[in-house]
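Appendix B, record 7
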Amino acid sequence: MARETSFFLLVMLLSLLISQQEARAHGGVVNDGDLCVIKINYLTAHFKIYQPRTRQHDEYCEDLPDVTESIFVMEYLHDELAVMPIDFRIIRDVTGKGRFARWEDVAAIDDLDSVTVFYQEPIIEPDVFTVIHEFDTGGQYIGVVTARPNRDGRGYIAVFPFEVGYTGFGYWPLFVGLLIIVQLQYLVMNGSLARWRAQRGVNVD
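Structure tokens (predicted):
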């Protein structure tokens, strides 16, 4: 019974770690079932990124595996976006906040242009907004999308940190660690580990 309780607690801990990782992995972009959605204030759009030269039709939410041409696509879920000027900026992440970077951190950068690697000036695109940028170096970046309900206001802003040349292992280390812990606990609970240590001690003597 104690083993089952401990196993349950370990599973709950793993679930908590995964949920925290998922929360960190997204800024203005969130998972909605099998789709990724970017939230620009109350406005939303389906969001996906392609790397056709190396990954053909594979879709990505944020982190990109290759340093290559990348196509960012937003398919509007709110008709208001179809009549708003929208601009799109990609900067090198110099905030030091990584996955936790927010607009306030970007706005605090002294010279935003100096860290900008791509900028699409505000344009009105009905239905689908698309930009293409070819990365020449991997690393941490921040995307900034601004929808402007009027030309004088700051607009609605979505910020999403992402990595180019992403080589993360995902959740596998967590699962492997859980399996090792469960196996060790099982050996302790049924006495196998104690018997092995005792036997090893006899053999050594």
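Remarks on this record: The chain has two domains: 27-164, 171-204. Residues 147 and 153 are 10 Å apart (CA to CA).
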